[in-house]
Amino acid sequence: MTASPRSNWNYPTAIRFGAGRIAELAEACKSVGMTAPLIVTDPFLATQPMTKNALEALKAAGLKAAIFSDIKPNPVETNVYKGLEALRAGQHDGVVAFGGGSALDAGKVIAFMKGQTRPMWDFEDIGDWWTRADPNGIAPIIAVPTTAGTGSEVGRAGVITQEATHTKKVIFHPLMMPRITICDPELTVGMPPHITAGTGLDALAHCLEAYCAPGYHPMADGIAVEGIRLVKEYLPRAYKDGRDIEARANMMSAAAMGATAFQKGLGAIHALSHPAGALYDTHHGLTNAVFMPYVLVYNRAAIEQRIERLAAYIGLEPSFQAFLDWVLKLRKDLGVPHTLDGLKIDAARFDEMSAMAPEDPTAGGNPVPITKESARGLYETALAGRL
Question: Rounded CA gap, 153 and 95, in Å?
C-alpha cells in the first residue's frame, strides 16, 4: 500500500484587491494598530505623486507618517539598518512597504528587525533559525505593491544582499507576512514597458518553478498553472498598453499567485539569477527571463510530462517544445535579451557565480540537482545562447 503524502500548506494573506483600494490605506493602518507608520519605498517612487498622495492621506487621517527611501534595486544590509534607524528615531510603530520587490522586501525586514537584539543574519531561512526571533519585536506590516512581479506582498520573507560576501540571503519569519495587502492595479499603470516586462516575467518564473518543483502540493500547482495562463493572456496586453486596467489587474493577480505558489519551491532559474543580481546589480525579473529557457532544457527529462499538461492548459499544443517556443517568443516580443551579454554579464566571474548558485536557498527546489559544474555549464550556455 502506498503511503499518503505529507506536506505543510499555508495561505493566510488578507488582500484588498481592486482599482481605487489605495484609498483604504489609512483605515488599514489603523485596523492593525498603527498610529505612526513609516512608508518604506525606493528613491524614484518617493518622488512620485502616488507616494506623496499616500503620505498625505495618512497624515490627514491623523497618523504620524514619514517616508524612508534609501533602498537599492537589490536591497543590501545597509539599507535595512538605515531604515531601522529611521523607524526607531521616528518612533514608528509599523511599516507600509510601498513599491516593487526591493521596497517590499526591505520594508518587511525593517519591520521584522524593529525589536530584535540579534544580528539580521541570525534569521536567515535555514532550518528553524526563525525561532530565534522575538515575535513581540516584529512591527505590523501593510504591503502596497506598485509592480506586478515579485509577489513579495504575500510572502513571509525578504531577500537582502550581504555586502561582505555579495550574496543574497533570505530572511524569514511567519510573522513577516503583511497583515493587510492592498493590491490596486491603478498603481501599476505608470510602469514603463521594460519594467512591465521584467516584473511580469518574474511572476512567470515564480509560477513555473513552483509548478516544476518536486514535492506534493496540488494547491500550489493549481495556483501556479492559472498564474501562468494569466501571464500568457495579459502580459503582452499590459506591455503594449500600460493603461489597460484589466491587463494590469490580472498581472497583479498573477504576481501574487506566483509568490503564493512558490512556498512549494523555486529552482535553478532563481539560483542562477541571484548571484548575477548580487554581483552585477541586474534587474531580478529580467535576469530570470534570460535564464528561463536554458533551465527548462536542463530540466527537461524530469519535467516533460508536467510541461505537456501545462501547455495544454494554457492553450498550446501539449508538448514541451510548444511551451519552450512560447517562452522564447514571449521573451523576444517583450524585448528580453536572449543571452547574458544583453545583461552586460561576461564569463569573468563565472567561477564565483558557479560556486554561489548551488548554495542559493532556491537551488534545492530544482527538479534536477544543481552542482558547481552544472551551474557553470548553464552560465556558459546562457552566454552563448545555445539551446
Answer: 13
